[in-house]
Amino acid sequence: MARSVGFVAFLDVLGFADLMSREDHEQRLEEYFSAVSTYGSAEGASGLQHVLFSDSIVINTTSLGVESFGLLARNCSRLAGLLITRGVAVRGAIAHGTFSRSSGTNGTIVAGAPIIDAYRREQEQEWVGISLCPRVLDAVPLEELCALVENVGNVGDSSRQAKIKANLPLLLHVQQALIPLRGGTAFEDHSVEGYAIVPSDASLETPQSLFYSVDRIDKALQRMKLRAPDARAQKKYVAAQEFLRKVAFRWQVLNNYGFEQFIAAAGDAGSDLGP
Description:
By secondary structure, the protein is of the alpha+beta class. Helix content is 47%, strand content 23%.
């Protein structure tokens, strides 16, 4: 088996058994496969590998570079958004490290510490979302980069503007989050601070495109929330909605400080995803 050092995402489709018991299960299953197929044909997806087994999806990069992480983050963002807008809730986590992968005519095997880390992190969560395992921060300078959006002080600083512009693709898809964990109640939070993927149903190139995408996904989550059977189940969707609204608010604050015109010109910016 070939050994690689890279990033691994483990995604779990929530309520898959219930989905399969519905009268329209064939249509919903087709929507699920369609979303995964759309991800597979997305730009840059050829730099990723994935395995689909029933309600579980494992996606891995083939290298450990920050650009590889950005590629995985963007594709997980798009896949999560496509599933949510199709009424399919997804939860997951991204880890990094050394893993083994083997593909043959009889199947594909993916094994290693990052798969276990991502699986355990996914199981700990109690929301609709994809978070990052803490060890990802050892390979990607997210604390420094996300702080550029978090802190509204010195918005006019040219150095800070340049950093945001250069790292815009990553910052639109990954943001700081309060991640709900199992063990709480319907009325009591049990959360941990960390970073999460921003789900999107379209290409995120500017804050404006993020606002439109967040609005559509927020509405899709609202529809799913209203169909949830009880308060605990509804809370998973509420947490996702709160995360998306906070992300949109951060970018809106920057725009209100006169940042919008500068960001709008980011389409011709180069990439500077390094530390």
